[in-house]
Amino acid sequence: MKILVCLKRVVDYNVRIRVKPDASGVVTDGVKMSINPFDEIALEEALRIREAGDAQEVIALSIGDADCQQQLRTGLAMGADRAILVGTDTAIEPLTAARAILEIIKREEPGLVILGKQAIDDDCNQTGQMLAALWDRPQATFASKLQLAGDKATITREVDAGLEQIEVDLPAVITTDLRLNEPRYVKLPDIMKAKKKPLESLSLGELGVTETLGLQIEDYASPPERAKGIMVGDVTELLSTLRDKDLIG
Amino acid sequence: MSKVLILAEHDGSALNASTAKCVSCAADMGSDSIDIAVLAAQTDGIAAEAAALTGVTQVLSVERPENAAPLAAVIAPQLVALAADYDYVLAPSTTFGKDVLPRAAALAGVPQVSDIMEVAGPRRFKRPIYAGNAIITVSVPEGSKIFATVRIASSRAAPAANEAAPITAADINASLPAHTRFVGLQAGGGDRPDLQTARRVVSGGRALGSSDNFDLIYGLADKLAAGVGASRAAVDAGYVPNDMQVGQTGKIIAPDLYLAFGISGAIQHLTGIKDAGTIVAVNKDPDAPIFEVADIGLVGDLFEVIPEIERALGG
Ligand SMILES: Cc1cc2nc3c(=O)[nH]c(=O)nc-3n(C[C@H](O)[C@H](O)[C@H](O)COP(=O)(O)OP(=O)(O)OC[C@H]3O[C@@H](n4cnc5c(N)ncnc54)[C@H](O)[C@@H]3O)c2cc1C
User: Fold this and answer.
1) At a CB cut-off of 8 Å and minimum separation 6, what does A98 contact?
2) How far, in Å, from the CA of B263 to the mean position of ligand 1?
3) Hey, which residues does B230 pair with through a beta bridge?
4) Is position A236 within any domain?
5) Is residue A63 part of a domain?
């Protein structure tokens, strides 16, 4: 079985996001970029499945501009066998990403596609679900545990009510939650080895996918700031402040 | 004429409070009609609750044994079949809505607007990105159906109506897949107030140090009739179940009062509490980032502060 893993290049989660003064976007110049943390978890899961002997090959896929090669190289250093970059210079929507991934699926025929549940830049939380719909296959979103048994998988999902278990037939789409695993650190020799692993580039157009945008982003704004708070000296003062605001009895 | 269809969320017997919030968001869109779709194995009680919300025009009830569990692969094709005559299809931005709606949108061939926090005009919406550190205004061109999830912490709940809307049984011709099967649900929370609707929430972080120590948080919460939340670190460490996590990847909540004990205030956590009325932070580190957003801050050791609060509250 092959496993396809999608890696999105995003602003690192530790960066403090600033909106550009002209409201046209957020500042990304000179900002640290990384693999979307949820996608890193997706890759880690795929590698563990391969290491357990349940898959033969792990393919890392990214969609975006040429800079995404950095994240694909990191993915190869973590242990992916090969990488595919679908090139596009415009920011694309989840539906377009799903259409592009579907074209790669048709070529590679993976048994599992694992993606992060959301990308921490646009926080859309859509791509995996859309892909599963277009592919007409099962989806198991927000996975915190994945067990394979033959041509089936049992997934524990983190839902608002607790932990849900579902069983799906393969092939299927899995999206990861944070507690699925802890991704490994990349070791220096692996970075060297990764340079020799195959990285194929093709364009969205070559896949027959158009970049039309269904949604228009009009502007970006900073969130409203909360009013400056106060510090209290002790519990008595804390409780009397809360009583004054009628927040406790 | 613009018509809205809302996908009801429920647990098989009762309507989830998130549905009433979608109704008020739909009302903000200036729609001419607001219908609610209830898909369940037994719809009667849920449909009656939905029909009783102010602003609802009609409830469509789809009763099938396949709808016993909330499986996206099963619900999405039915929702798309129902959505044929609607301009907007809404679902709450809960794990249920986030799971189902993108699948339905893709089946319908249209993009989705996630987490509407404000209706800015006809076909214009504000939504958070980057864990709420930026807000974008998105517009959807005329002529395309709009699929959107509603950020429930941003919406008020539609109140109960004087007169109930009619409930219609809807027959849908959609073939449902058998490739996805529900196995079970292990419910986390006990009988404390629901985190997402509680007026007060007491939350604990890594500093609690163990699940036994978390009893301190539960005890105070019970005294205040509050829901209980936690940081990711507390969940990861196994002190509390996952459904208590507050933040970018947990629950986004908007209680009147949020009390954070031993939580540093990482941006991913703060995302979940930005809409809280009053944020109280207790942390022993005076430089903890949580104090930058707290309305009331107290530097102190939670293991001393919580018992002191309990004593002061008495009874
Ligand atoms: C993609 C991604 C998504 C994430 N999503 C979430 C999310 O949804 N929710 C979330 O919470 N986090 C999330 N995180 C994690 C987040 O970045 C932080 O790691 C986490 O919130 C830290 O939890 P904490 O504040 O409990 O722990 P810490 O950061 O370790 O803070 C503990 C605090 O307790 C204080 N303290 C210690 N002892 C005491 C004492 N005795 N009395 C009082 N104070 C004390 C310390 O001063 C410190 O400030 C996410 C991270 C990533 C990368």
Assistant:
1) A126, A127, A130, A131, A133, A134, B106
2) 5
3) B204, B245
4) no
5) yes
Q: Find the angle CA(A121)-CA(A124)-CA(A127) to the nearest 5 degrees.
A: 110
Backbone angles phi, psi at B38, to 5 degrees: -110, 110
CA-proximal residue: ligand 1, atom 51 (nearest): B268
Q: Are B3-169 and B200-312 in the same CATH fold?
A: yes
* CATH (domain of A215): 3.40.50.620
Domain that residue A48 falls in: 2-224
A242 vs B: CB within 8 A: yes
Q: Which residues approach ligand 1 with their CB closer than 6 A?
A: A 13, 37, 120; B 205-207, 231-234, 245-250, 262-264, 266, 268-269, 272, 282-285, 288, 301-303
CA–centroid distance, A237 to ligand 1, in Å, is 26
Interchain proximity A123–B184, CB inside 8 Å: no
- Of all protein residues, the one whose alpha carbon is nearest to atom 37 of ligand 1 is B207
Would you say residue A248 lies in a domain?
no
- CA nearest ligand 1 atom 50, residue: B268
CA of residue A15 to ligand 1 center, whole Å: 16
Closest Cβ–Cβ partner in A13, A179, A220 for B236: A179
Rg of chain B on CA atoms, in Å: 21
The count of domains in chain A is 1
DSSP B200: E
Amino acid at A54: D
Query: CATH for B200-312, among 2.40.10.10, 3.40.50.1220, 3.40.50.150, 1.10.760.10?
Result: 3.40.50.1220
Taking only the tens of pLDDT, chain A with its 249 residues reads 999 999 999 999 999 999 999 999 999 999 999 999 999 999 999 999 999 999 999 999 999 999 999 999 999 999 999 999 999 988 899 999 999 999 999 999 999 999 999 999 999 999 999 999 999 999 999 999 999 999 999 999 999 999 999 999 999 999 999 999 999 999 999 999 999 999 999 999 999 999 878 899 999 999 988 888 999 999 999 999 999 999 998
| ipTM at complex level | 0.96
The residue among B7, B11, B63, B1 whose CA lies nearest residue B35 is: B7
Residue closest via CA to ligand 1's atom 41 equals B301
Task: State the burial class of residue A247 (Cβ atoms within 10 Å of its Cβ: 0-12, 13-18, 19+).
Answer: buried
Domain boundaries, chain B: 3-169, 200-312
pLDDT in tens, B155-206: 888 998 889 999 999 989 888 999 999 999 998 767 788 898 899 999 999 9
pTM flag (> 0.80) = yes
A122, part of any domain: yes
CATH architecture entry for B3-169: 3-Layer(aba) Sandwich (3.40)
The radius of gyration of chain A from alpha carbons, rounded to an integer in Å, stands at 21
Of the residues B202, B268, B306, B308, which should be mutated to test ligand 1's pocket, given the most ligand atoms within 8 Å of the CB? B268
